[in-house]
Amino acid sequence: MILPLFSLLSLGIMAMADPHPVSVMSSGGTPRVLVFTRTLGYRHDSIPTAIEVLRAQAGTYGVSFDFTE
Question: Any idea where the domains of the chain sit in the sequence?
Answer without folding.
Answer: 2-68
